[in-house]
Amino acid sequence: MRNKIKIIPLIICVSLLILGCVSPVIEHLEQGGAYTDNEQWDEAIIEYSKAIELDPEFAPSYYCRGLAYHGKGDLDQAIADFDKAINLDPDYAWAYLNRGLDYDEKGDLDQAIADFDKAINLDPEFALAYFCRGLAYAIEGEVTKAVSDFEKVTELSDDPTVVERAQQLLDELRQ
Questions:
Q1: pTM for the whole structure
Q2: Alpha-carbon distance 59 to 92, whole Å?
């Protein structure tokens, strides 16, 4: 699942390039995406920071830097960047999802679930958000809610690996 999350910055950059929005900001995001793909977190952070310096109102730059901080293990800084991305773009479902993952990793399941809820409210077909929320519910012992979320994942996801894992978790929870 992390591999899919890591490629999102590159997808954002390519999408913007296709739309003809080539700019120095995008160039730094592309370079940061390449560093992120190679798990060169410090270099990625530098590139994303350069993009932020050029356009401090562009939410994807903070989002991408948050992913790099997450990769580096600096969850507090990752959360701060996801916060900034959300402040700039309150409908940024991926930022809520990744902030939720960081809260989950820090052990704050209530905040993680709140962020997964928000991501789902913004995009009711966001299978990965249901999957993450299902995991959080399972950890909390909320089996009925976890089962419901994993069932939703099997309905929505077109990724066979995610569907298979959700089905495995459903089988375990139903025992």
A1: 0.87
A2: 8
